[in-house]
Amino acid sequence: MAIARSLQEEMTKSSWIRKMFEAGEALKTRGGGEIFDFSLGSPNLEPPREFQEALKDLVHNPIPGMHRYMPNAGYPSTRKAVADLVSGQEQVSLEPLDVIMTVGAAGALNVALTSILDPGDEVIILAPYFVEYMFYVRNHGGTVRVVQTTEDFDIDLEAIERATTEHTKALIINTPHNPTGRIYSQEKLDGMSQLLGRLEQRTGSPIHLLVDTPYAKITYDAKNPLLFKSHPATMIAHSHSKDLGIAGQRIGYLIINPHHPDRQSLRTACTVTNRTLGFVNAPALMQLALERSLHSSVDVSYYRENRDLLCNGLAQAGYQFVRPEGAFYVFPRTPVPDDLAFTRELLQENVLVVPGSGFGRAGHIRIAFCVARETVQRALPRFAKVIQRVKRG
């Protein structure tokens, strides 16, 4: 087979979202009636006015040279704007050089991983997880070690400690969390930082905390923790795909903790890898538009109302789940152990969700509620019908 053996299993897992999308397209082609597609985490809200106006102004009043190369880490003015914003959010003093503009959070994570990993280094990821983390680690010669979170999807510090070895180089976390909507508390992050500090003393080298934050502005019932507060070897990978509703534009950034013990060399390494990975630089037009709309976001109240409508309906129907505190996903337990079978039962009612097996946690489904309000309203009776049918056997 032409495909590397190490990728075959992960390709199967990562294809579930795409499979459900394709199943929906097939239903539409066959004229299978109304489709209720909760499979994709693609924001359905249009970008806010500030972003639209910034883009329009840049197109009609272009800045001379704005389509040419710029420094590989991004426009100095954009990096300064990001540094100023995040300094306030994180209560630290960032410099523009701590910011590397990237092709989304995915680009930021790949830049960080290739900067810190040697072949055979281990990276811990927490399940349920965003499946592409597996690829990002293996892209750069790393080995993945999966650690399960608790029953309610919180960080299990003891499990992380058991999973660490002398080869542990990094830990990736995602908050607010995809696929569960969990927001990790400051207390839990502080505990993790203390654990990583002890492990660093044992191994004699930094263990990086890589925090993936594309849903940072999409919060409901909990506050985001201060990510740079405790652990010096922390980097934030952020994207504006969700909070500005511009997933197709691929704009984000990597931020290095100003307290990182190797801050200067890491800045240089990440700038070099941004170029050598083939990104060269983040899209110029998006950097300039972002600079003018950093303080904007889509209307988060819309997602909150969708969440409340969906969660209330699911609870009334008998589903068990942890109420999401952020992002736009809920991750209910399936009434039968086989989440793939339950996914197929929902598909019979034209309801598309993603099985939890694809995120490393079987026995659950992911429902993305970044959809039209009417889609949630009209799908709820079908969710109820399926769980009742399955429970009857």
Secondary structure layout plus pairing:
Elements: H1 5-30, E1 36-37, H2 49-60, H3 76-90, E2 99-102, H4 104-116, E3 122-127, H5 132-139, E4 143-148, H6 157-163, E5 168-174, H7 186-203, E6 208-212, E7 234-239, E8 252-256, H8 263-276, H9 284-291, H10 300-317, E9 329-330, H11 339-348, E10 351-352, E11 354-355, E12 365-368, H12 373-392
Parallel strand pairs: 1-10, 3-4, 3-5, 5-6, 6-7
Antiparallel strand pairs: 2-8, 7-8, 9-12, 11-12
Helix pairs in contact: 2-9, 3-9, 4-8, 10-12
Percent helix, as a range, is 40-55%
Q: How large is the radius of gyration?
A: 21 Å
Order of helices and strands: HEHHEHEHEHEHEEEHHHEHEEEH
CATH class of the largest domain equals Alpha Beta
* Average residue pLDDT: 93
Kindly report the spatial arrangement of strands forming the biggest sheet.
Answer: 2-8-7-6-5-3-4
How many DSSP H or I helices? 12
**Low-pLDDT residue spans:** none
**How far is the first residue's CA from the last residue's CA?**
41 Å
Q: Which fold does the CATH topology of the largest domain refer to?
A: Aspartate Aminotransferase, domain 2
> Per CATH, which architecture of the largest domain?
3-Layer(aba) Sandwich
The total count of strands amounts to 12
β-strand amount: 5-15%
Main sheet specs: 7 strands, mixed
Question: How many domains?
Answer: 2
Structural class label: alpha/beta
Looking at CATH, the homologous superfamily of the largest domain is Type I PLP-dependent aspartate aminotransferase-like (Major domain)
Shape: globular
